[in-house]
Amino acid sequence: MQPETEISMEINPTNLETQKLLEFKHAGINRASIGVQTLNDDALKILGRDHTSSDSLRCLKEAVQIFSGHVSVDMIFGFPWTYFKTLAEGVKAGLPDSDEVADMYLAAVEILKEKGFEQYEVSNFAKNDNYCLHNIAYWTGQQYLGVGPGSHGRVWCHKATSTKPQREARVQTLEPENWLWEVEQFGHATRRRVVQSTQDM
């Protein structure tokens, strides 16, 4: 494997996974992608997440030290119930409209720019050229492997029936127990393979 190969792992910022960050690093992971999602604890509960905003910030702080700044953060906005009329009564306001979501996006772009982040893809930002290589591969039609339950990858394949290679979207089995069983039985756990068109890429 080339030294510049990115081996990224998606990490939920729970106490359990935060305690394992060093183990992940020693196992060869060189980029951590932290699934923060939102720093609003009420929204995290609605999304069914097992962590709090404090857990996220603690995990992020440790990950930045352990992975030398090679850390990604997944944040979402515009999801259902972003706004609440009366939280105590659990009244949901539903999805924000497209104008509100566009305003949130533009505000995020401006705030991140002010903080020294460079926008290098539609929804990806980086500091100090620490671009996420698999994001770039996704947007530029290159290969990347997805390994583990529920992971996605894009692979160029040479078929016996075609002179030109085809790019396939591959999705791994979602359930961890089933994924492991399939790997042990078949050597892989690819649940779905879809040949991509030029438009897909």
UniProtKB/TrEMBL annotation:
GO biological process: porphyrin-containing compound biosynthetic process
GO cellular component, one term: mitochondrion
Segments forming domain Radical SAM core: 3-80
Pfam families reported in the protein's UniProt record: Radical_SAM
Gene Ontology terms, MF aspect: 4 iron, 4 sulfur cluster binding; catalytic activity
Xref: InterPro entries: Coproporphyrinogen-III_oxidase (IPR034505), rSAM (IPR007197), rSAM_horseshoe (IPR023404), rSAM_sf (IPR058240)
Name of the protein: Radical SAM core domain-containing protein
Source organism (scientific name): Pomacea canaliculata (Golden apple snail)
